[in-house]
């Protein structure tokens, strides 16, 4: 019996040693320092090359490996904001396996690093009353299937109360998902903070999934009008007139915003388009040889803005779209800022819109 116990003990000891040798070391990544420098780490003994790519860098930077197989690099003094980043391990893009904050996207494998400012930024988690995010399922008769969306309700929201709220329909970018506006864009925290400061009207924010494939992409316009708006107004205390309904979106979602908004100006009093991608058949069909009743549209739409960064790869096409609307006598307020086609600018654009809507 003693020999048997000794045998088991030796097996566990040897097995534990082997397991300890195989298990990767516990590492912390990313580490944000007080001076806003950030250290990124990745473990691999087999990789030949590892580099860091991020929207805080002009170009990827090489990481160096120590004798334990930990690759690392420290980036100095990053401007406070939320940034996507990824590693390239022997030319293969991966998210940071040591970071639980993942960029919600269908194409790119990226993580998120939050570099806080000394003064809390508009998207920061602050000590204010908070709203809630609801995951909802609805029947899309347009597409013939059940779909899901996210709904933000503001602080002190009472679904059974007498208070009714205006609604913003907020659309993500092309390869993003219905979660990108909260997980990367921090739309809920931006709304919480601006509402607490008295700068934004308490509102419901609806974040649908803009990708309807394999159905034709223009069907999303029909789905918004025929399925999503009726679902929200049947299940939430929403105001139902056009002056209390807004639509906004980024990139592909910005193009969808223009298509949806300007084919339904009787339904949306506010149209906010962020760096819109408009090289689509739907946009071409809607706006080629467009002869709008500008007087009527300008009465129906209380505010129409188009926002873009000067380093955005869509900057020139967005300027052309702004000029097209101006030529058609449609009142449009451009917002031109520095920066590129990024979610850093998206947060800025959304914060601006939330302070303008429903006033």
Brief overview:
This protein is of the alpha/beta class. It has 9 helices and 17 strands. The strands form 3 sheets. Strands 10-11-13-12-14-15-16-17 form an 8-stranded mixed sheet, with helices on both faces. Strands 3, 4, 7, 8 and 9 form a 5-stranded antiparallel sheet that branches.
- Briefly note the CATH topology name of the largest domain: Rossmann fold
What is the annotated CATH architecture of the largest domain? 3-Layer(aba) Sandwich
SS-based structural class? alpha/beta
Strands across the major sheet, in which order? 10-11-13-12-14-15-16-17
**Counting H and I runs of at least 4 residues, what is the number of helices?**
9
Q: Output the CATH homologous superfamily of the largest domain.
A: Alpha/Beta hydrolase fold, catalytic domain
In the CATH scheme, the class of the largest domain would be Alpha Beta
Low confidence ranges = none
DSSP summary, beta strand count: 17
């Amino acid at each position: 019996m003693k020999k048997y116990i000794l045998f088991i003990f030796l097996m566990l000891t040897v097995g534990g040693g082997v397991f300890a040798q195989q298990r990767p070391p516990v590492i912390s990544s990313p580490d944000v320092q007080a001076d806003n420098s950030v250290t990124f780490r990745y473990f691999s003994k087999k990789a030949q090359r590892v580099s860091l790519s991020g929207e805080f860098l002009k170009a990827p930077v090489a990481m160096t490996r120590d004798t334990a197989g930990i690759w690392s690099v420290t980036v100095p003094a990053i401007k406070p904001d939320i940034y996507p980043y990824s590693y390239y391990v022997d030319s293969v893009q991966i998210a940071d396996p040591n970071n639980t904050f993942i960029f919600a996207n269908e194409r790119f494998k990226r993580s998120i690093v939050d570099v806080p400012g000394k003064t809390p930024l508009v998207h920061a988690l602050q000590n204010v009353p908070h709203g809630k995010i609801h995951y909802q399922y609805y029947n899309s008769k347009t597409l013939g299937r059940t779909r899901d969306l996210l709904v933000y309700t503001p602080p002190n929201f009472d679904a059974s109360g007498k208070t009714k709220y205006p609604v913003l329909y907020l659309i993500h970018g092309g390869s993003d998902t219905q979660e990108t506006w909260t997980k990367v864009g921090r739309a809920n925290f931006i709304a919480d903070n601006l509402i607490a400061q008295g700068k934004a009207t308490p509102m419901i924010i609806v974040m649908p999934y803009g990708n309807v494939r394999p159905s034709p992409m223009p069907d999303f316009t029909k789905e918004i009008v025929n399925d999503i708006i009726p679902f929200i107004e049947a299940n939430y205390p929403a105001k139902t007139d056009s002056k209390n309904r807004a639509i906004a979106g980024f990139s592909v979602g910005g193009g969808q915003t223009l298509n949806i908004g300007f084919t339904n100006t009787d339904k949306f009093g506010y149209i906010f388009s962020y760096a819109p991608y408009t090289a689509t058949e739907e946009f071409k069909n809607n706006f080629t040889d467009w002869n709008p009743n500008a007087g009527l549209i300008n009465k129906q739409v209380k505010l129409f803005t188009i926002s873009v960064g000067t380093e955005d790869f869509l900057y020139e096409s967005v300027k052309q779209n702004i000029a097209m609307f101006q030529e058609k006598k449609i009142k449009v307020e451009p917002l031109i800022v520095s920066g590129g086609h990024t979610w850093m600018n998206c947060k800025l654009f959304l914060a601006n819109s939330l302070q303008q809507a429903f006033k």
